[in-house]
Write a structure and sequence with these properties.
Number of strands: 0
Structural class: mainly alpha
Largest sheet: none
Number of helices: 3
Shape: elongated
Oligomer: single chain
Order of helices and strands: HHH
Number of domains: 1
Strand content: under 5%
Distance between the termini: 44 Å
């Protein structure tokens, strides 16, 4: 298992780890879509555990949106979400972008 050239061993063990990290990051962002939709404790929990991304769709009139209206937030709900998340993100010494 540990025999061979160091370069070969590095790629043998590092590549699966990098692929796992990629899947974990994608999962975190995709999960953030659903957590962001709920607005409540779940969004706060995502930020508290260090979610790398939180994707939220905002639309002025979600029922009339051509796509993804059911998961879109109104601007008012988005402002409410940001107001709740900002102190937690600052406490964790992260930035909202």
């Amino acid at each position: 298992m540990y025999e061979g050239k160091p370069r070969t061993l590095f790629f043998r063990f590092a590549v699966p780890q990098m692929i796992g990290l990629l899947f974990n990051s994608v999962y975190t962002i995709v999960d953030g879509v659903f957590i962001g939709h709920r607005l409540g404790r779940e969004a706060m929990a995502a930020a508290a555990v260090g979610a790398d991304g939180l994707m939220v769709e905002v639309h002025n009139d979600p029922p009339c949106a051509k796509c993804d209206g059911a998961q879109s937030l109104t601007p008012e709900k988005f402002r409410h979400l940001m107001a709740k998340l900002t102190p937690l993100v600052r406490l964790m010494e992260k930035k909202l972008v």
